[in-house]
Write a structure and sequence with these properties.
alpha/beta, Rossmann fold, 2 domains, six-stranded mixed beta sheet, four-stranded antiparallel beta sheet, 12 helices, 10 strands, globular, binds adenosine-5'-triphosphate, binds magnesium ion
């Protein structure tokens, strides 16, 4: 499988002296689903801006499909890496939604008929057909977020980088965007890289997680990352709520091999618990249970 992203020893300092990235090295293969977790100010957005060359490193250390991102013309960069910004207002700046979605394809030098086709398809994909003539800043936040995603999809990127895609969305739009990202990965083979605070959505969107705190402090499967309480606490992160619940149940003698990381995993986990116990899932309490629970809760960071 091809290497979609290769970063070697990347450092970044903003003009005012703020050091945002230190010694980042990572590789992502084509078709992978990656999540980058990190507290506010950890450097997620700065890292993403390096991936499409919006910020250019002084050294040659960011490669997209084997090519130095600094040497790529803009038309190639936007086709290879589509960045869905954290704030949709950063992505929508034209008088109409049509103009915004057509902006990237126009920069790629495509014909007017191809641009029209792409705008139509991208708006349909995000559920905004018929919004072509609407004024971007009159849209609701959730609609803006979907329109911003359409501006990226219209460029048919090979790598889709999404900065906080589920933030501030209602439950239906949150579920829709998670499904859409996964469909783009599964059906079109797009490599997806998401930055998230929404730990409850991580396992639904990623098979591999990097924890960022200026540098990469941990990496692995969602289970490996979320079972490392000390690392999470040191980096101001937490495990998904449903995972915490099943860890608490362990203190009551109900231990499952692989605690769920998302609500959607719960039925399978409960089924396997029944299989393992011969149909007798029991909770029990003894004189040590309360101490075990208290000790576990203290390791689960701020929420208790
Ligand atoms: N233009 C800038 N000039 C100076 N410092 C900046 C600039 N942009 C970001 N920073 C600083 O760089 C660091 C990393 O910021 P960045 O926005 O990449 O973090 P983040 O992980 O995306 O945070 P959040 O979760 O809040 O979006 C922060 O300390 C931030 O204050
Ligand atoms: Mg950010």
């Amino acid at each position: 499988m091809k290497k979609a992203v290769k970063i070697e020893n990347l450092n970044h300092q903003y003009a005012d002296g703020t050091v945002s990235l230190e010694n980042i090295s990572l590789e992502i293969k084509e078709g992978e689903r990656i999540a980058i977790l990190g507290e506010n100010g950890a450097g997620k957005t700065t890292l993403f801006l390096h991936l499409n060359g919006s910020i250019k490193s002084s050294e040659d250390n960011v490669y997209i499909f084997g090519k130095n991102v600094k040497t790529m013309p803009i038309s190639e960069r936007i086709h290879k890496v589509g960045v869905f910004f954290q704030d949709p207002d950063d992505q929508l700046f034209m008088p109409t939604i049509y103009d915004d979605v057509a902006f990237g394809p126009s920069n790629m030098g495509l014909s007017q008929s191809e641009i029209k086709k792409r705008v139509k398809e991208a708006l349909a994909t995000v559920g905004l057909s018929g919004f072509e003539d609407r004024v971007p800043h009159h849209l609701s936040y959730g609609q803006k977020k979907r329109a911003a995603l359409a501006t990226v999809l219209a460029m048919k990127p090979k790598i889709l980088v999404l900065d906080e895609p589920t933030a501030n969305l209602d439950p239906k739009n949150r579920a829709n965007i998670i499904s859409l990202i996964n469909e783009l990965n599964r059906d079109l083979g797009i490599t997806t890289i998401v930055a998230m605070h929404d730990v409850n959505a991580v396992s639904e969107l990623a098979d591999r997680v990097f924890v960022l705190n200026k540098t990469i402090v941990a990496g692995g499967s969602p289970h490996e990352v979320f079972s490392d309480n000390n690392m999470l606490k040191e980096n101001n992160l937490e495990a998904p709520e449903v995972y915490k619940l099943f860890r608490i149940l362990e203190c009551y003698g109900c231990k499952c091999r692989c605690p769920p990381l998302a609500m959607t995993d719960v039925p399978d986990v409960i089924d396997s618990l029944f299989d393992e116990t011969g149909g007798k899932v029991q909770l029990c309490k003894d004189e040590k249970t309360s101490d075990k629970v208290a000790s576990l809760l203290s390791r689960f960071n701020y929420h208790f």
